[in-house]
Amino acid sequence: MSNLIVLGFNSEADAFEMRASLARLQTQYLIEMEDAVVVTRDVEGKVKLHQPVNLTAAGAVQGTLWGSLIGLLFLNPLLGAAIGAGSGAISGALTDIGINDQFMKDLGATLTPGTSALFVLVRKSTPDKVLDGLKPFIGKAKVLRTSLTKDKEDELRQALEGVARPGVGTPAS
């Protein structure tokens, strides 16, 4: 079962840097992500999703390949490629993998203009090593939402925000 983690940042750059760090950790087999999307809200209030993969372009490339192959069968590979690219681009644009785009847009609309959020769908991980790899982001990220258990969420919050909730880990002041 996958877990959703949404982190808020005061700058766009920090969200992109953390996504890059998580991608590096994935190459080391410390985390397996299904999706990692940066959501930004510009000063005009426009929400933008920055997907790691452009599904429209990927669909167009795949459609071109298949269209060319089918076109060869009918002795018109150029027409097949053109039709395949068009249909592939349309199917890629309509495909939504991972985290629901509308959910991200709705949460992104609540962000303060000029800030960002990182939505990560984690299939599995080695939490202690992942948190160790994210030490440069201590104090930069705020946990907005998760589907983790309360204990794991509090552990993540303490590791990234550098603070513990009263009654969790440290006594209240």
Descriptive account of the structure:
The protein is built from six helices and five strands. The protein has helices at residues 12-27, 55-73, 77-94, 101-108, 127-133, 150-161, and strands at 3-9, 31-41, 47-50, 116-125, 141-146. The protein has a five-stranded antiparallel β-sheet, sandwiched between helices. Helix 2 runs antiparallel to helix 3 (77-94). The protein starts with a strand and ends in a 12-residue tail after the last helix. Residues 92-96 and 167-173 have low confidence and may be disordered.
Task: Please name the defining characteristics of this protein.
173 residues; disordered C terminus; five-stranded antiparallel beta sheet
Give the strand content: 15-25%
**How would the global form be characterised?**
globular
Which secondary-structure class do the elements indicate? alpha+beta
Strand order of the largest sheet: 3-2-4-1-5
Total DSSP E strands: 5
Radius of gyration: 20 Å
What separation lies between the terminal Cα atoms? 37 Å
Q: What's the story with the biggest beta sheet?
A: 5 strands, antiparallel
Mean pLDDT over all positions: 80
Low-confidence stretches: 92-96, 167-173
Helix content: 40-55%
Number of helices: 6
Order of helices and strands: EHEEHHHEHEH
Give the gist of this structure:
With 173 residues, the protein is an alpha+beta fold. It has helices spanning 12-27, 55-73, 77-94, 101-108, 127-133, 150-161; strands at residues 3-9, 31-41, 47-50, 116-125, 141-146.
Topology:
Blueprint: E1 3-9, H1 12-27, E2 31-41, E3 47-50, H2 55-73, H3 77-94, H4 101-108, E4 116-125, H5 127-133, E5 141-146, H6 150-161
Antiparallel strand pairs: 1-4, 1-5, 2-3, 2-4
